Amino acid sequence: QIILPLEWFPLNKPSAGDYFHMAYNVITPFLLLKVNLEVHIIIMFVMGASIHLVGDSVNHRLIFSGYQHHLSVRENPIIKNLKPETLIDSFELLYYYDEYLGHSMWYIPFFLILFIYFTGCFTPVEEESRMPVPALLLMGPSSLYYW
């Protein structure tokens, strides 16, 4: 914050510290776990889905309070009445994390991993590997949860 003070960034957009936190979450699996690209993409997918779902959870609660989804954040009647007015910027930041960052981190890795999977389907493999038993056991509950 000494080099890039928070005051330099609008309150309704991520600050430099936020970007460093995101970079930390992206870089750490490579450094500590020595994971390959596919696992890293899956980690990004899960992070993006989580960010989006948390934002949706807050948005659903706002709807019960009178929030109108068809209006922008600043045009909503319940948001206009917030005091201090800087809280409106916080709700715009939440909207940014949900709709822009969350969707990007969710969908881009999803399609990348599908692309890697389907290109791998047409690559000849010398030895067929078997899925471990714990992975087979987790596949059922996971597929029910996601689909």
UniProtKB/TrEMBL annotation:
Signal peptide: none
Ranges annotated as spanning the membrane: 37-55, 106-125
Annotated GO CC locations: endoplasmic reticulum; membrane
Biological process annotations from GO: lysosome organization
Coiled coil: none
Keyword terms of this UniProt record: Membrane, Transmembrane, Transmembrane helix
Pfam families (UniProt xref): CLN6
Protein name as catalogued: CLN6 protein
Species of provenance: Columbina picui
